[in-house]
Design brief:
Ribosomal Protein S8, Chain: A, domain 1; alpha+beta; globular; 26% helix; single chain; 99 residues
Length: 99
């Protein structure tokens, strides 16, 4: 089966699955959907911990990312990254272990 996107719609994101993702590469309106896709892919790869680099700026991206994390079923906990890994410009996420 071939996937076809509606006319004028951009193709789906290609999210690299590593232990961290830099969200600066994505438009602000896409960040939440990118994070959702990334968390699902990271869980499939059985990562226990990942880091989301959202930057410091005004805190808008950080707030949007954390609002998603607060309700996401794959997320066990999250916090600021350690100072040497981005501090409050990145969020450390602990993923739930799955059977």
């Amino acid at each position: 089966m071939t996937r076809t996107d509606p006319p004028g719609e951009p193709p789906p994101h290609r999210v690299p699955v590593e232990e961290s993702i830099d969200l600066h590469a994505f438009t602000p309106r896409d960040v939440v959907s990118v994070v959702e896709e990334y968390l699902e892919a990271a869980a499939r790869k059985r990562y226990r911990e990942v880091r989301l680099i959202h930057g410091k700026g005004t805190g808008v991206q950080r707030a949007a990312v954390r609002a998603l994390l607060a309700r996401h079923p794959l997320v066990e906990s999250y916090s600021d990254a350690p100072p040497d890994a981005g501090g409050w410009g990145a969020t450390r996420v602990i993923l739930r272990t799955t059977g």
